[in-house]
Amino acid sequence: MLVRLTPATPRKHKPHARHPLARPVQRKPGPVRVVASRPRRKIRRTRVIPRPRLAGSRARACSQETQVPTRLIKLAELKFRACEGYYSKSAHACTWPCSITQMDSTDELTEVYEALVHWADVVLLATPIRWGQAGSLYFRMAERLNCVQNQITIKDRVLINKKVVSFIITGGQDNIQGVRDSC
Fold this sequence. Notes:
Layout: E1 34-38, H1 54-66, E2 70-74, H2 86-89, H3 99-103, H4 110-119, E3 122-130, E4 133-134, H5 136-144, H6 146-155, E5 164-170, H7 176-182
Parallel strand pairs: 1-2, 1-3, 3-5
Antiparallel strand pairs: 3-4
């Protein structure tokens, strides 16, 4: 076997600057901060009883009653690609920040990463029940969070720590326990 130490082809991609999300996770002083995610822009009224926009209303109520900073992230208004399964190919290929976010400057999931990892102390996640499962936008976001979980596996580095998380699951009683367990 012949092994050549010099590359046969020149490097095409130039080294890139460190991504802004790659900074150390440090809590800045200040009051408790709340982030809420809402899966849809509008909730269609398919039933006689209208369903409220719970995540947004809970975040607003929290902000008004306790004067804590809040952010509402509307997943349906963000343009982000689905997970491309880098972890399935190689655990080391699934990096923090997400490889997709680093390569695609138009990927808007940066807002979610910034809020969950660097900004929020309290996280409210909302999802409707669709066909007995959590909504597809919730799953798309959760799949892209593989890069956060992978840091524990590969580097023994915990990015999301000491946060309070609450799930708001709306819909009928069809498999609510299954949706709760998958969140």
